[in-house]
Every structure is written in C-alpha cells, then in structure tokens.
C-alpha cells in the first residue's frame, strides 16, 4: 500500500468500508485502486496493467472503453436525464427497452419490470410471487426452493435465497420459508460410481421429496441460476434441467431463472435458459444488460405471473412496488445500446468460439498438481484448486490456496476471483484469442509459482 499520508489509498483506508472485504485486513493491505480501462484491460493508480479476467463482477461484457455506450448515455443525459415509471408515467427509452427484452426473451414473456441491481430484481420477483399467490386465493403458496451455493444477491430477501455462508453469517436475516437443495455439482456431490445422469435423477428425486414433505400446495417457486456463478461456476450435469423442470411442472411450481450472470451471451447463447433449455416464468436480468456502465436490471414475467398481478392491482388500486431509479432513462438508453452492440457484433457467437479456446486452454492445466477440476462453458470458467487430487482437498484453511494463487495472478497482472478454493474466469465478451492465450499462460505461471511456494 502507498504510504503517502494523503494518497487516495490512504484516504480509502481512512474513510471507505468496502463491499465483500475483510475490513480489518483492509487496514493493513489497503486497496487496489483502478484508474482507467481499455478493452479487456484496466490500469491501477500506478499505471500497472491488468487483464480483467472477471469483467469486473462478471459484468463488463463490452470491455472498459466502449465509446458507443458513453455516447448513448450522453445523448440521453442531454435530452432527458431523469424520469420515473410510477403512476402511469414513463419515457421512450424504457418503453423501447421493455419491448426489446420481452421480444428477445427465449420463451414467451409478457412484461418487463425495471430495477437497479440483481438483488432488487430478485426481491421484486419474490414479492411478485407472494402477491400472485394471494391474488390467486392461495395465501399458503409461499415457500421458495433454492439450491446450495446459489447466489441471488444481498438485500434481505435475496440474501435469504442466496445459499453461501458469508451472506448469512452474523446478519440475522429475516428468512422467508426457504427449502435448500443439493448444488448440482457432480465433482463434489456425485457419489462414487454414479454417472452424471444418475446424479441428475437423484437431484430431481430430492426435489420431488422436498416438495412432498413441504406440502405441494405451499410451494410457490424455484429460483435458480441456469449455471451457478458466484457459488463456483457450477455447470449442471447432463439431463439435470430436463428432470428438474418435469418435477416443477408436476406440482405447478414457478421457475425463476436468475440470468444476472448468464444473460446476454455469457454461456454462448443470448441467455442461459437457451443453453440449458429452461422454460422459466420469470427471468432476472442485470450486469451485462448495460455492460455495467450504469446500474440496470429488469425482471421479465410471463402471463401466468402478470395475469393475477394485473387483476389484484386493479382491485387494490395500485401495484405498490417500484424504485425511484428503476427504468432510469440513461440506464435504459445504455442497455439498449449494449444489446444493439452485442447483436451487431455477433458477440454471442463469438463467446462460443473464443470461449472454446478459453475452455481448452484452461483444461490443458487439468494435469497440474494443484488443479482438481476445470469447469465452465463459453466465456465463464473455474478451476477448483486442490493439494490432494485423490481426496479432492486443499489446504487446511478453506480459501487459503485460492487466495495464494489469486495473489500470484494479480501480481502477474491478471484479475481473477477466488471463490473459496475455486478461481473464476469470466472475461469480457470482446476478448481476443491472443488475450485468451495470455490469460491461460498467466494462470499456468501462477499455479507453478504457488506450487513452488508450497514446497
Ligand atoms: N443474481 C446473481 C446470479 C448474481 O450473480 C448476482 C451478483 O453477482 C446477483 C443476483 C445480485 O446482483 P447485485 O449485486 O447487482 O445486487
């Protein structure tokens, strides 16, 4: 850390409580302050360059210097910098974006509702589901199914649906009725001798049994990321989604697809729902929707959800939910331009093509003594780090090995993210093949360095 008393780093330590950071350790190590961005690279305050292999927080799909987004924001700022969507009011960009999202959805959707973050979209989905059950005269139909290692955000309801210990520990969450099931992670959860398909069948049976135990009439919805992101980039096993959806359909349980990471090309299709053939009733969208140049998120709902909400809001006189900045005109304009660029530049197909190189490159590290599993698809991947391949275990303190490799990567100029002992990679959709090679070579070197350090 810079020792200059009045440096930005010193002032950051003095005044800033960071998100997802060990506050005590931060006072010793200080921040990495990023000053500017260019394509897939960012530069810190001292001019050091990093390949941003996480797209910030899985989100800057178009890289860090897309001028068209700046121009779209400027044009909209100059024309109408703010308007809201309450009490029958609105503006052109939000109407255009609603139409675009509903028409590009991979399954029939009816309406878009606008929020500012993934967590708000998920909270909104939960509130809509409860509102709907009440509207249908089924007030007991309120329970929600999630999977272990799910990440759905951090507001009170979203954090309750998230199933990672750090999001629950010490927060005294007001937990709604949540049923948590096994994460679809074959490497960790598969039983000896079990095939992927048998594993998927077992998880569908677990779901069926959990619904039976809870009482089918009390279960409203399942929230799920098509591919779990922050829980460790967990690609579900073959036939998983087909079997899970069959169980949900049997009991008339809604499916909410949390596309906050998968949406807009990440898995090689425009939406994760297309990659895994999901037929959700609601889709939560954020992050790459605006390439994160400005906060934006949306919730798409189909007729099954919209119909009862329409009737009930008619009776009550309003749908009493909304955010001051939801559907913000500048965020809407930037989102429309982002989607236009993704479509015009063929970035979804590109994610598949360049992503195949990323997957092959990372899989070439599978024989490394510190690599337990390489997983992912298209431009999202993770390496599960181990010190004992047979036992699938890492160092005694969970997260220690992940932190070591991550620190070595950062020193070498690559930003990844350690999720306990799995390293995540989710580079901008615009990454080139040469930059993928640079990334893979950097990961190999960081693994070698860490292996030496461990002696
Ligand atoms: N859902 C998923 C799948 C996410 O990955 C995230 C954030 O990483 C969220 C929801 C929460 O989004 P936000 O951080 O914008 O509230």
From TrEMBL:
GO molecular function, one term: transaminase activity
Alphabetical UniProt keywords: Aminotransferase, Pyridoxal phosphate, Transferase
CDD domains, per the entry: OAT_like (cd00610)
Cofactor(s) it depends on: pyridoxal 5'-phosphate
The keyword Transferase appears for this protein: yes
InterPro entries for this protein: Aminotrans_3 (IPR005814), Aminotrans_3_PPA_site (IPR049704), PyrdxlP-dep_Trfase (IPR015424), PyrdxlP-dep_Trfase_major (IPR015421), PyrdxlP-dep_Trfase_small (IPR015422)
Family: Belongs to the class-III pyridoxal-phosphate-dependent aminotransferase family.
Identification of the protein by name: Aspartate aminotransferase family protein
Origin species: Aquamicrobium zhengzhouense
């Amino acid at each position: 850390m810079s020792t200059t008393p009045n440096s930005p780093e010193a002032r950051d330590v003095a005044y800033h409580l960071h998100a997802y950071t060990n506050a005590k350790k931060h006072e010793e190590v200080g921040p990495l302050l990023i000053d500017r961005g260019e394509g897939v690279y960012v530069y810190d305050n001292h001019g050091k360059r990093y390949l941003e292999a996480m797209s910030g927080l899985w989100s800057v799909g178009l890289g860090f210097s897309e001028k068209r987004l700046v121009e779209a924001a400027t044009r909209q700022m100059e024309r109408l910098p703010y308007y809201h969507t309450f009490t029958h009011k609105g503006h052109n960009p939000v109407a255009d974006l609603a139409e675009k999202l509903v028409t590009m959805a991979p399954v029939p959707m009816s309406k878009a509702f606008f929020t500012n973050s993934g967590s708000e979209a998920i909270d909104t989905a939960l509130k809509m589901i409860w509102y709907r059950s009440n509207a249908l005269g089924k007030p007991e139909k309120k329970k929600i199914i999630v999977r272990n290692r799910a990440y759905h955000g951090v507001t009170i309801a979203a954090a309750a649906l998230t199933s990672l210990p750090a999001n629950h520990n010490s927060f005294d969450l007001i937990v709604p009725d949540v049923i948590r099931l096994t994460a679809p992670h074959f490497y960790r959860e598969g039983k000896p001798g079990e095939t992927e398909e048998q594993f998927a069948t077992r998880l569908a049976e677990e779901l069926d049994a959990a619904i039976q135990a809870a009482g089918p009439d009390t279960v409203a919805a399942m929230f799920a990321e098509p591919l779990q992101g922050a829980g460790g980039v967990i690609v579900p096993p073959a036939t998983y989604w087909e079997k899970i959806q069959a169980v949900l359909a049997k009991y008339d349980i809604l499916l909410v697809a949390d596309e906050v990471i998968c949406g807009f090309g990440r898995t090689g299709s425009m939406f994760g729902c297309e990659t895994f053939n999901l037929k959700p009733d609601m889709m939560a969208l954020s992050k790459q929707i605006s390439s994160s140049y400005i906060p934006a998120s949306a919730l798409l709902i189909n007729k099954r959800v919209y119909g009862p909400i329409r009737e009930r809001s008619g009776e009550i006189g309003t749908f009493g939910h909304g955010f001051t900045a939801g559907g913000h005109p500048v965020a809407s304009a930037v989102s429309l331009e982002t989607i236009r660029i993704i479509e015009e530049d063929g970035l979804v197909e590109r994610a598949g093509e360049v992503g195949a190189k990323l997957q092959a490159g990372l899989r070439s590290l599978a024989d490394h003594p510190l690599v337990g599993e390489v997983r992912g698809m298209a431009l999202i991947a993770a390496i599960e780090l181990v010190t004992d391949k047979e036992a699938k275990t890492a160092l005694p303190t969970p997260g220690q090995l992940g932190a070591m490799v991550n620190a070595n990567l950062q020193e070498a100029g690559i930003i990844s993210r350690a999720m306990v002992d799995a390293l995540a990679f989710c580079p901008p959709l615009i990454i080139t093949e040469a930059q993928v090679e640079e990334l893979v070579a950097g990961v190999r070197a960081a693994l070698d360095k860490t292996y030496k350090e461990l002696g």
